[in-house]
Amino acid sequence: MEFYANVGTYCPDTERIIKFTEEEIKEALAMAPSAPVFGEGKEARKLVARKPESDTSPWCFIGAGGAPVSTEELFVSIMEA
User: Fold this and answer.
1) pTM value?
2) How far apart are the C-alpha atoms of 1 and 22, rounded to whole Å?
3) Residue 46 and residue 37 in contact, taking contact as beta carbons nearer than 8 Å
4) CA dihedral of residues 22, 47, 65, 38 (deg, nearest 10)
5) Do residues 66 and 38 lie in contact, with contact meaning Cβ atoms separated by under 8 Å?
6) Which BP terms from GO are recorded (predicted)?
7) What are the tens digits of pLDDT across the range 63-75?
8) H or E element: which one contains 18?
């Protein structure tokens, strides 16, 4: 926590470092979702960790997982992998 409050987050678009107080970090963590959600509407699914012998059905998503992809060539490579 102290490290992140001191270092901050680099924003490549503005080429600036965004700083947060420890209070802001704690508030953001408290409000953060417990699992990432992929998809939209009725196709939205939470990606949760499964343990061996879990009753939760496995599923996977295809693509860059929400990360930006810099070129179409890279996107195609990820999709074909």
Assistant:
1) 0.53
2) 7
3) yes
4) -100
5) yes
6) methylation
7) 777 678 889 898 8
8) strand 16-18
Which amino acid is residue 79, in one-letter code? M
R_g over Cα of the chain: 17
Q: Tell me the pLDDT tens digit for each residue of 33-65.
A: 888 888 889 988 888 888 999 998 888 777 777
Q: How far is CA 17 from CA 5, 20, 26, 73, in A?
A: 11, 10, 19, 30
Q: Please state, in angstroms and rounded to a whole number, the distance separating the CA atoms of residues 47 and 56.
A: 11
Compute the distance between CA of residue 57 and CA of residue 46 in angstroms, rounded to an integer: 12
DSSP characters over 37-70: EESSGGG-EE-----TT-SSPP----SSTT---S
